[in-house]
Amino acid sequence: MSSEPEEEPVSVLQRFEKRLEGLVEGAFAKVFKGVVHPVEILNAMQREAEAHKAILAGGRTLVPNRYVIDLSPYDHSRLAPYAAALAQELAQSQAEFIGEQAWTVYGDVIVEIERGDGLDTGMFRVTAEVYTGGEVAPVQQPAYDAGPQYSPYDQQGGYPPPGGHGGGPRSVGLVSGDGRTYPLQMGSTVIGRGDQANLRLPDVGISRRHARLDYDGNQVVLTDLGSTNGTMVNGQRVSAVALNPGDMIQLGTTTLTFRVDG
Fold it and tell me: Under a CB-based contact definition with an 8 Å cutoff, are residues 101 and 53 in contact?
């Protein structure tokens, strides 16, 4: 009997390590000694995909396709000569992993390796998002060196659409207490008071990049981006949650109501 099924869970990692050995032409152990190991990054990317999966209409499972890897300045400088090739190998291996799980992504899997000032050597940060081709400001999550820092949306890995049924994209938006309306576009919207936020709110209690809304045409998922004062939905502090019509979102002293039309 073939032993292949027993090897399946680690096959992607095994292939990735093989390609890495060829990538650095025999200098594999030396290059990665004392710095974050790329296999740890790939492991974290797989966990991020698992943590951010969402159920689409028709039962398909959507996972992020864009992964931004922030490395410590030391690790980044050591891996800089291999950064472009490493990003390509990470993207290929992540695409293989997603394919084996029979998950869905928008377009190609993208991996970007960046310098993360303030990160200690050996630490790294993985940001995962659904990227649909629009301009999306990169967002930051707490740094870690093993395992994801936030939980999946729920134990089942998904929520029903806001309207309770399938169908095409609906008109969704946020309404502030003074009646201002902020329509949401497909893809990701970063809320904050900084220049890089897509939706800027002049509230000193809000972080520069406070929270992110991901809209796939069926549901909107709100994710706190490690904000100083946290994000509340209906009075409860949240890390990531799918929104339902009428939900009250509080950031700083600002309250926004989630609305779905159609």
Answer: no
**Number of Cβ atoms within 10 Å of the Cβ of 228:** 10
Query: How do 66-71 and 110-115 pair as beta strands?
Result: parallel
pLDDT string in tens for the chain (262-residue length): 444 444 455 678 888 888 887 766 544 445 566 677 888 899 999 999 998 888 887 788 889 999 999 999 988 998 888 888 889 999 999 999 999 999 988 878 999 999 998 888 888 899 998 876 554 434 334 444 433 333 223 223 333 333 333 445 568 999 988 888 888 888 889 999 888 788 988 888 898 889 999 888 888 999 988 888 899 999 988 888 889 999 999 998 899 999 987 5
Give the C-alpha separation, 232 to 206, whole Å.
Answer: 12
Handedness of CA 61, 156, 127, 27 (dihedral sign): negative
**Residue 215 in contact with residue 185, Cβ under 8 Å?**
yes
Helix axes 83-100, 38-51, angle to 10 degrees: 40
Query: pTM for this structure?
Result: 0.49
Cβ pair 217, 167 in contact under 8 A: no
Structure tokens at 234: 């209906």
Strand partners, 111: 67
What's the CA gap between 112 and 83, in Å, rounded? 9
| CA–CA distance, 250 with 35 (Å, rounded to integer) | 40
Q: Are 222 and 213 in contact (CB under 8 A)?
A: yes
Residue 71's Cβ-side half-sphere holds a number of Cα atoms within 13 Å equal to 21
CA–chain centroid gap for 43, Å, is 14
Question: In whole angstroms, how large is the CA radius of gyration of the chain?
Answer: 20
Strand partners, 24: none
